[in-house]
Specification:
Chain lengths: 554, 554
């Protein structure tokens, strides 16, 4: 899309999905980007490690990009930053902890030196071309979250970032209701607000509730306590540390991201850990079991993380004993239920005492529920509204909430990634698209896996591959060796001799017939072989392996 | 395991899992089997269609098998029957509807004629060698459910089947509390009770609740209503039919299992549908949208079922219009959440009004919650207890409930499939194993997919396959053609010319070096090629495709 006049707003990621949030705000020749997240693939994207936004629009308009403003330090808001910066340099603005977490990533990718990073807080004002950004404090399951206020020539735009209204936050970082009220009073032209919990009625409970229950569980545990939660939930880590202090336990950390976050958060002052509190696993092993708590990654059932390894006895540094207590202080994100359940089953088989599930009060969401979304809408009183950060059904539920508090239906835009909302002379409408999409990261490859490769992977995963090798004589036009049949993921050849023998007979008959008819174009031969074998195998096995004839001419 | 003296009990399926229930009860030379279910594979079993129990133990003891008693007609209790009967003939005892549903399967597999089937009900008593079976009425999400009482020389064994205590059942099939009380009063030696909802506090709501909300939703819908639920939940189908009658709508059925179940249940009198109520899709299309309800399969998000096809516009017979109402009257079974969510997102994009989720009161479980499990345990007062029908964590929770109502902990056995509990002279203990396991069905293949094939499918699905074809001259010991490189699911060759060129160079260098060193054993050559290419590709791409060198000698 050619660059336009006036104000335009679009998502490069974050709508019609949970993950890879990235929003573009452009006024004539100035572009401000909010967030650049990544997302984990679902089970249909076989072999893919990570998904990042397609930033072609920014590449085409590099000279206009003024800044990347980051609302907070979660992966779905910062995970795409290294990949973005490898393509376009731009200054980054973020709060203190957020910057600390971004730095870890930039260091890993060798990008730390060349990137200009500026710390901001709720008192900052930054001029970014035609747009002026200021910020307000919100709270969420990580400290130092900011909402963004952008003053543009068309009016004031507010982007909430992720938020809840935790009025008794564990870390005393209160949501700044008065500031939000003032912003709303001055007049918000357009609001973008997050929709994660738009389907959930009521008000999300305070994080403090979790702290009470963690301490209770620590008190009752007769031996070691293993507790698993999101490493990035620094407030919860603090409550776990506090519970350990009060119940006279030392702490041991398992899992790379847990070690990383505890280090950064402690250095920056977001986590207060008494000296000598954290022990290495080998030191911790010497303690009496009742004096020890283990804080570990893997609360989503990730197969390579600490909790999964502990649950199948494959962790190198630690074993779970019968009578130990295991606390899973997180809810499984949809799609992860089976992995988490498998871990719990294994832990039961080990004789552990396990505290998990929605009845346990050991997890609260970091996202505001319906009443909180209505509260934000009421405070901001926006003229126009774009629900963001959610799958379609969440955006639609959020629309219904907005209508209920007085936003006019025709002033609400439910977008797909790439859809453009433009504002010109006070008239807002949805019009046109910019390029947006998902770039797949597989190992070191970025964007090199396309639909053909994924389609092959799907067929391979369901029915495998059958390779047929034959050698033809160029001069005599006859089969001189083969067929040799190789199966991977289709059948185990040694157990299927009869089937393979029939396959060979079909190949010989098909090839001889074609040679008799002087059909020697390879493409035709291969296609004929594929078709006849495909039909035969489906009728005999109801499976459709990839059939790959290899013809050697000598 | 050699056959034993005394009473033995084992699960061939159904413990440490949800699905493929099958329990074996043996007294000396008499074996009674309860249920023979199937189970759907999880995402790790790539390409597998169905899982059935390993019945080797029954094959080894064919002459002793007296009967298969079936508690109710759900797939996880009857889905394995055709595969069992293909190996061993045995008479089947089941209630009327259950037999009707089993007959559909046996007809499909051409087994109907040769199978002896006997209808039983709560008044039946059947002598099966040393064991006498009688039955009691329970209720669940399908009509005609029975619990089984087995009088054995060691004492009375009770197997509950699946149950809840719905005291206001939609179909008036009440759980027979007085009968259960009498059985308990006479003395139950050993109870096997189902554990599906052992993690859920409270009492499962009555199915009638759902009926009220369905009618309400039908009343409010301005256009057509699409409603999706489990086809086997005949009671709910009846409530949907009733709601349609009362709101003056005709019904159209979409999906093979929905058509099958409605036909069988109507024929057998479990479902009452007024004449002319059910229309074919083409007739239904002529009705005013407000006069029409569509009952369809696919409430679990199954990609090939009616609801999924409707949601992506690919159903051949019907389309959803903006303003239509879609009701999903089922909860997603763990693992299906993403598929269901995707459907809801698509339906929103179509402009449908959607009623779904736990807030909607349009689904209740068919399994009793904790208070109901305690009620069953209290009624039966068993001396010994085996929690069945559940994953480990559910069995453990059920154990805790049993202890709470007075069963001694050392009298409770948490088993894995194949574990044997034996009773001799009034002493019960867990001792030894019989063969048990999962047989994978893939297309027409039963048990022919083993670990090697699955491991290949996993590697293929994640990173694909790279095939290298080279032709060597036997006489001159040199490379005469190739390497030809074929990728499926690894990289798209046309986009990766440079990488493939490097692969070819490595192959040529490796082969020439080996030929120079007179290494000509194919196995050694192949392994060397695999190793050097594997290392190179991992370092360059962080991927591990299957590498398959094919060497042709001419």
């Amino acid at each position: 899309m050619q660059s336009k006049e006036g104000l335009i707003i679009a998502a490069l990621g974050g709508v019609n999905e949970i993950g890879k949030n990235m929003y573009v705000f452009q006024y004539n020749d100035d572009i401000v980007v909010i967030d650049c997240g990544s997302k984990f693939p679902d089970e249909s994207l076989l072999g893919i490690d990570l998904i990042i936004p397609d930033v072609s629009y920014l590449l085409d308009n590099q000279d206009k990009v003024r800044a990347l403003v980051v609302t907070h330090g979660h992966e779905d808001h910062i995970g795409g930053i290294p990949y973005l910066l490898k393509q376009i340099q731009m200054p980054i603005y973020a709060s203190r902890l957020t910057l600390g977490l971004i730095e870890i990533k930039l260091r890993e990718h060798g990008l730390l030196r060349e990137t200009k990073m500026t710390r901001i807080d709720a008192n900052s004002t930054i001029e970014l071309g035609a747009m002026t950004c200021s910020f307000f404090n919100t709270n969420h399951s990580i400290p130092d979250c900011l909402g963004v206020v952008m003053d543009t020539p068309e009016g004031t735009i507010v982007h909430t970032g992720d938020f809840k209204f935790d009025l008794t936050p564990a870390n005393k970082q209160y949501p700044d209701l008065h500031r939000m009220s003032d912003i709303g009073k001055k007049g918000v032209y357009l609001l973008l607000s997050e929709s994660t919990n738009a389907e959930r009625p009521g008000f999300t409970p305070s994080e403090q509730l979790v702290g009470v229950h963690i301490e209770e569980a620590f008190n009752q545990a007769k031996q070691r306590v293993f507790i698993s939660t999101f490493a990035s939930n620094v407030n919860r880590l603090q409550q776990i540390v506090d519970a350990a202090v009060r119940t006279n336990r030392k702490i041991c950390l398992l899992g790379r991201s847990m070690v990383n976050v505890v280090q950064v958060a402690t250095e920056l002052g977001y986590l207060t850990v008494p000296d000598g509190m954290i022990l290495e696993p080998n030191e911790a092993a010497k303690l009496h079991p009742e004096r020890m708590a283990v804080l570990c990654t893997g609360s989503q059932g990730e197969p390579m993380a600490a909790l999964a390894r502990l649950s199948n006895g494959s962790h190198r540094q630690m074993k779970i004993d019968a009578g130990d207590t295991v606390i899973i202080a997180a809810s499984p994100i949809p799609g992860n239920e089976r992995d988490v359940s498998r871990i719990i089953d294994n832990l039961y088989a080990m004789g552990a005492h396990i505290i998990y599930g929605s009845q346990s009060d050991l997890h609260v969401s970091g996202h505001g529920s319906q009443e909180e979304l209505k509260l934000m809408l009421t405070l901001m009183k926006p003229k126009y509204f774009i629900p963001v950060h959610g799958e379609f059904r969440m955006l639609h539920q959020h629309r219904i909430l907005a209508e209920a508090v007085g936003v006019r239906r025709e002033h609400i835009f439910i977008l797909n990634n790439g859809d453009v909302v433009e504002s010109k002379n006070g008239v807002v409408r949805q019009f046109g698209q910019i390029q947006a999409g998902q770039i797949l990261v597989d190992g070191l490859g970025i964007g090199d896996i396309g639909n053909i490769v994924l389609r092959d992977r799907r067929q391979l995963s369901a029915d495998g591959i059958l390779i047929i090798v034959i050698t033809l004589s160029k001069t005599e036009s006859k089969l001189i060796s083969g067929p040799d049949t190789i199966s991977r993921g289709f059948v185990y050849v040694r157990d299927s001799e009869e089937l393979i023998e029939e396959v060979n007979q079909i190949v010989i008959a098909t090839v001889n017939k074609m040679l008799e008819e002087h059909i020697t174009q390879w493409n035709v031969m291969k296609k004929t072989l594929k078709d006849s074998l495909g039909q035969f195998l489906y009728s005999r096995t109801k499976r459709r392996p990839i059939i790959l004839p290899i013809i050697i001419e000598v």
